[in-house]
Fold this protein.
Amino acid sequence: MSIESLASYTRKDWQKAADKVLASAETRFFIDGRYVDAIDGGRFENSNPANREVMAAMAAANARDVDVAVAAARRAFRDKRWSGLAPRARMDILYNYTKLISENTEQLALLDTLDMGKPIRDMLNIDLPSVIQTIQFMAEYIDKIEGSVTNTPSDVMHYVLREPIGVVGAISPWNYPLLMAVWKVAPALAAGNTVVLKPAEQAPMSCLRLAELFVEAGGPPGVFNVINGIGEVAGKALALHNDVDKITFTGSTEVGKLMLQYAGQSNMKRVALECGGKSPQVFMADTPDLGRAVAAAYNGVYANMGEVCNAGSRLLVERGIYDEFVERFITEGKNAYVPGDPLDPKTNLGPLVTDEAQQRVLSLVESGKKQGAKLEFGGDAPKLHGSYVNPTLFTGVTNSMRIAREEIFGPVASIIPFDGIDDAISIANDTIYGLAAGVWTRDIARAHRLIKDIQAGVIWVNCFDEGDMTQPFGGYKQSGNARDKCIESILSYTQSKSAWIRLS
């Protein structure tokens, strides 16, 4: 069913559909165009964070299973069953792929909602439209990947080719299970590579169907493979594999650093990392339309339960507007996001992904109180059976507090006062991260100064978390080294080959 046809679904409709989807959900690996079980029969439990019920026992990969998946991808790359197709033929397959994804919206949306607690409305309005848009964008660029011919002496010809890297190992996170997987898989496929995807163990089910639909769309078997498993086992084995040519990872900074080590311990494979952030939004005293700015502030940290790499969790507010900003945030933001059943189309705040995530967020909230920040609202769990945390606001925060320094990955906002542009830049850059930032001011010169001096890969001015597929997404410092979306992303899955030809 298409996205449009699901607009009239009620909570009861979604629950009925969820029962049906779970009954038919796959739990094995998808390798070489078919579902296979773990060699040693390993399994792990997959639970619904909204009710803590176990939904399925997923096949758990070990190093032997990873070997099988990588071997399938290597065979598919070596015989050029994908990269050898004419560019327009590969484009047609990916276009057909997006059509099948659209036709299976109900199933794909439910799998992510059940797996990680994302409100079904977000799946329909944000995630799945973005999945389709991403694949379409990457497909459109396939026949536009160009090399070059350089200017040489008349008896020499020199040209540079762009070729696929080979086998790509992709490790995707649980906060946007389908979308973040597609941000990796789509450009890798568009560039002619083959892929082994290891989705996060907290939300693995939708990616299995994603790979199956690729084959249904005409994609050759073995080109897109998916293995489930625990990161410390399956993810590590994939990153260490000597027959994987590139590893692309989105997740914590701690694990991102391990990816770099694994590449060095194995075959010096390329490593692309997106490792989160602690994004500041800087609100200057001349912020235009304070009401819109405040809305961007609470939406930027409470959307998707705060489980967003670029969440604007540090709100830097100039003292001249600090009191009014805080008052508006409390008045408008306190009840803007209400925890509820993710299958209810009215719900805009689901549970956190696991009980462990819930307890970590609540522990950081306690640290904020102990370190002297003022809790304005929230800071606790609602009376719901699930891994929920209420939207939370701290004021009087200093940048030395844990809540201002650690990536919370929950619906917790910190408002930090500052005095003047130099102070704002100093606070904004006082972090190990550099993924994104927001800047709010009427002064164009001031805006450009902040853009140039804030150390972040993405800067929004008088808005937050907007953009399209032309916008590179990635960070500075320990937020990583990759750029997702955009043309640069496709080219990062290619390598250049220089051909110097003596004609005389």
Observations:
- The first strand starts at residue 29 and ends at 31.
- The CA atoms of residues 33 and 212 lie 7 Å apart.
